[in-house]
Every structure is written in structure tokens, then in C-alpha cells.
Design a protein that fits this description.
The complex is a heterodimer of chains A (277) and B (230). Helix content of chain A is 40%, strand content 23%. Chain A is globular and about 55 Å long. By secondary structure, chain B is an all-alpha fold. In chain B, helix 4 packs parallel to helix 8 and helix 7 packs antiparallel against helix 10. Classes of the chains: A alpha/beta (277), B mainly alpha (230).
């Protein structure tokens, strides 16, 4: 037996051993941002969808940047992220069809409770960032092209600060996911920005507090997109569409609204009734 | 530190009641890493033995290359396998991405150089004792390989264990090609990474203790079998 045939035999044996679990049509592959997964929303919603339709939902939770890239490689049936501009570009470029608003919550600025930059009770998020920059207080940035990172960069832009010039000094780009960045921020006594759902669900908060919230620029919109089957013939368009219909429909929307953690609502549904394709 | 005392109570909770979710994760970890290791041994042992016995031009280069691949970063390997198995990749039609099979393929490729390189060294060392006898008997090459592998079986068990340890402990490759999907591709290491990202450090560490316990069980099992196969 040649090595080549041995390897292919092995792959075949492995396939038999483990089962080819994604080949069936009764599943939908969702590339999702981490915040929705880490908050426990899917654990709450998906059993309802699965029992109603018999369709299994497989969620891959990564940063928005990576989720969009994976979906562009056709490795998704549905994309659920929070970076509207990038989402619209995803649709315009032909990777997705029909982006729909799904739900929203907001971002918050968190920091050490002794608040060295003195941003507590500032209502304008960009003013708060400016104070952090002016006082050279440590700020942990995702630095990973995620939805949260993009939001952070747009806020810096509005505050006329170029934090990139201070990278490695007070501005620390972690290049990691939200959870890892929060752990780092807490370890470095740094400020950072996070979505509220992740923060409420985050257990290693130590002495960090929400310091700035409520600015309307901190609005955090989630969108849901069906991957374009013209470009991705292997995608499960039908189950994907059913999932989107359910999430944006009455049942999904009311379940999203009813999901609470520590008595706090994490996501606010805002899908507009729309005729789906 | 309070985290460490919390870890012990978490470990107690995890090990006391057989939580079906945890069992599922443990079982998948074992299934994936054992299959990958066995497959890598099936190819790596004879391949390593051949490299140890045969002389051919460029042997040094091949040996150095395989030794280098032992240091392959799992993340890089994960990315390569991802690009191969992606629906838009050359093997996308197989629809293997985000399945346990994809994880086995990635770990197989991680373990193969380790098994091959360590076997080669072991067999080369033993070959110096055998070569005169074997050469004078004109034993065919396949027979040589078989004899040497069998006679080195005790030390090759450790080679297999080294491969298994690499597989069961890595997170970089399986999280990319498996996706850490609940009830489908979540294994111990990706679950630990997930709990860390949720800030639940005690639970993450407790899962780490469980993982080490499993590794201990596998090692004990293999070690105790040494006497039987000796």
C-alpha cells in the first residue's frame, strides 16, 4: 500500500468512525459574534427553535471580523454579527442576501473602580475617551477588527485622538476576543469597551465597574444575513432562511426580549416585519 | 487566593455528579485525540522505522524537516486544514469543516511528525545492533521494519504517548477547524478556552484538572500494559 492510499484509507476510516455530521440538510451553520454566544442567548433560544422545526443549529462563535471572513469563504449558512457597515458590504459584495436588523443592546466603557482618568458620570463617550488619552491611562483595545473594535475606533475618531500612535504605551491592543481582552484589562487595571451582555455575563469582574453608559453613540445593533447560495452552492439556504424567519418573527423576537440574566434584559428585539425572499 | 479554593470545589462538583454535558465533551476529546494518535502511529511508526533503517540521498534533509515539523504551531496547522476543508477550499465538497473528522485530521497532522521523528531516532539507535545480523541473513526490508518495531515496542509506547499528549492538550487547531460547537465539536481544551473567555476562571481551571486526570488515566493504562506486552 502506498502512503497516499494509506492516508486516504485513514481519512475514510475516520469519517466512518465519527460520522459526517454536517452533511444532513436538517442543520444550519451560524457564524456568530461571541457576545451573543457567551451571554447564553443561544442556549436559551435554540432549544425552542429546534423543537419547533427539528433543525439543529450549529453556532461557531468568533469575533465579527473572523465571522464575516468565514462566511465569505462559504463556511456558514447564516451570519449573525454586529458591524452594520461591514455587514452591508458583505451583502453588496454578493456574499449575503438581505441583511435584517435583529436586536440591539449597547456598549459600555468599563474601568477600575478608583477611576484614575476620572471618567465616571461623564455622559459623552468620546469625552471620556479623550480624558483617558489625556491622562495616559491604560486602555485595552480588542485590536482584532471585531464589531466592538470597529465601534471603539469610530469613537476614537470622534474624539480626535489617534490611539494607534500610542500603541504599546497606554494604548494596548490585545488582538484577542472580548473575554480575553476583559481578563487582560482587569489584570492591567485598564479601561476598555465591551457590549453590555458580555459584561453582565462576565464572572471575573474583580474591581472593575461600568463607568460610562447611555451615550447614543454606544448603540449596538445586531444584524442577521443569509449566505448567498449563488456564490455558495453548498450552503443550506432553506434551513438558513427558516432560522432567520423564526429569529425575526414573533416567536424569536419575543423570546429574545424575555431572556434575562441577573434580572437584566440583555438584548432588545427590533426586527422590522419584512417580506423575506 | 480564593480562585484556587474555588477550583477545588468546582472540581468536586464536576467529578461528583456525572454531568452529561461534561461526559460528552470528555468522550469527544478522547475519541478525537485517540483516533488521531492511532492513525498517526499506523503511518508514523513504519515510516519512522524506514527512515531509521534505509539510507538514501537527502536523508539528512528529510530527517531535519520532520524534526522541524514537530514544532508546527497548532494554530498554523489549523489554518491550513481550515483552508483545505473550507467550502470554498479544494476539499470543501466533502463538507468536513466543523465536524469531529476535521479535528481528527488536524490532530493527525500534528501528531504524525512527532511519532515519525521519535520512532526514527529509536529505530536508528537499535538498528546499529541489528544491522550486521539482518544484512547477513538477507532479511527483506519489510521484515526488518517489523522486527525492529516489535523489539522496540516498549520505548515506542512512550512515543505514542508523546503524540497523544500533543493531541489531547492542543487547542489552536481544533478551535479553528472544529469551531467549538456545543454538542458537536466542543472538546476539553476548547471548553477551557471558552470558560476563560467568559471570565469563569475557577470552572476553566477545574476543567483543566479533569483533563489532566484523563491524561493520567490513559498514561496509567498504557504504563501498566508494558509488563503485559514485554
Amino acid at each position: 500500500m502506498t502512503i497516499k492510499s494509506t492516508i486516504s484509507t485513514c481519512i475514510i476510516i475516520c469519517t466512518i468512525l465519527t460520522g459526517n455530521l454536517h452533511a444532513d440538510d436538517q442543520s444550519v451553520l451560524v457564524q456568530s459574534t461571541t457576545s451573543t454566544a457567551n451571554s447564553g442567548l443561544y442556549d436559551y433560544l435554540l432549544p425552542h427553535f429546534e423543537s419547533a422545526t427539528g433543525i439543529k443549529v450549529h453556532v461557531v462563535a468568533v469575533g465579527t471580523g473572523q465571522a464575516i471572513r468565514n462566511a465569505s469563504n462559504c463556511d456558514a449558512d447564516v451570519l449573525l454579527v454586529h458591524a452594520k457597515v461591514a455587514e452591508q458590504k458583505f451583502v453588496e459584495d454578493g456574499y449575503g442576501v438581505n441583511r435584517l436588523d435583529l436586536m440591539y443592546n449597547d456598549f459600555v466603557l468599563i474601568g477600575p473602580s478608583d477611576d484614575p482618568a476620572g471618567i465616571k458620570s461623564i455622559t459623552d463617550a468620546t469625552d471620556a475617551l479623550k480624558k483617558i488619552a489625556d491622562s495616559n491611562s491604560i486602555f485595552a483595545s480588542r485590536g482584532d477588527n471585531s464589531g466592538t473594535h470597529r465601534k471603539e475606533l469610530s469613537l476614537w475618531q470622534h474624539s480626535d485622538t489617534e490611539p494607534g500612535l500610542h500603541s504599546g504605551k497606554w494604548y494596548r491592543e490585545t488582538g484577542s476576543g472580548m473575554g480575553a481582552t476583559l481578563n487582560i484589562a482587569i489584570g492591567m487595571n485598564a479601561y476598555t469597551i465591551t457590549d453590555r451582555a458580555t459584561w453582565i455575563n462576565f464572572k471575573n469582574r474583580a474591581e472593575h465597574r461600568i463607568l460610562v453608559e447611555g451615550d447614543k453613540r454606544l448603540f449596538n445593533q445586531y444584524g442577521i444575513i443569509l449566505v448567498n447560495s449563488n456564490r455558495c452552492p453548498l450552503s443550506n439556504t432553506q434551513t438558513g432562511q427558516r432560522f432567520i424567519n423564526w429569529m425575526t418573527g414573533d416567536e424569536g423576537q419575543s423570546l429574545i426580549a424575555s431572556y434575562k440574566l441577573s434580572d437584566q434584559q440583555l438584548f432588545y428585539p427590533n426586527a422590522k416585519p419584512e417580506i423575506s425572499e | 487566593m480564593s480562585t484556587f479554593s474555588q477550583v477545588f470545589s468546582e472540581v468536586g462538583v464536576l467529578l461528583s455528579g456525572p454531568d452529561p454535558d461534561l461526559l460528552e465533551i470528555v468522550w469527544l476529546s478522547l475519541r478525537v485525540s485517540l483516533t488521531a494518535t492511532l492513525a498517526a502511529c499506523a503511518i508514523g511508526l513504519p515510516l519512522g522505522a524506514l527512515l531509521g533503517i534505509k539510507n538514501f540521498p537527502g536523508k539528512t534533509i528529510v530527517t531535519v524537516l520532520i524534526n522541524t515539523l514537530m514544532g508546527m504551531p497548532p494554530v498554523v496547522l489549523g489554518l491550513i486544514v481550515y483552508l483545505m476543508l473550507s467550502r470554498s477550499g479544494p476539499m470543501g465538497f466533502l463538507q468536513l469543516l466543523y465536524t469531529p473528522t476535521a479535528m481528527i485530521i488536524a490532530q493527525f497532522a500534528l501528531v504524525l511528525p512527532i511519532v515519525t521523528a521519535l520512532t526514527r531516532q529509536q529505530i536508528e539507535d537499535n538498528w546499529s545492533e541489528y544491522s550486521d545480523t539482518m544484512n547477513s541473513l538477507c532479511v527483506p526490508l519489510t521484515q526488518c521494519v517489523r522486527t525492529l518495531l516489535w523489539d522496540s515496542r516498549i520505548s515506542l509506547l512512550t512515543t505514542g504517548l508523546a503524540g497523544f499528549s500533543r493531541a489531547i492538550s492542543e487547542v489552536g487547531a481544533v478551535i479553528i477547524v472544529g469551531g467549538n460547537i456545543d454538542h458537536l465539536t466542543r472538546v476539553m481544551t476548547t471548553a477551557i478556552a471558552l470558560e476563560t473567555s467568559k471570565g469563569d476562571l475557577p470552572l476553566a481551571l477545574a476543567l483543566g484538572v479533569v483533563l489532566l486526570t484523563i491524561a493520567l488515566a490513559v498514561n496509567t493504562l498504557v504504563f501498566s500494559s508494558r509488563t503485559r506486552i514485554a
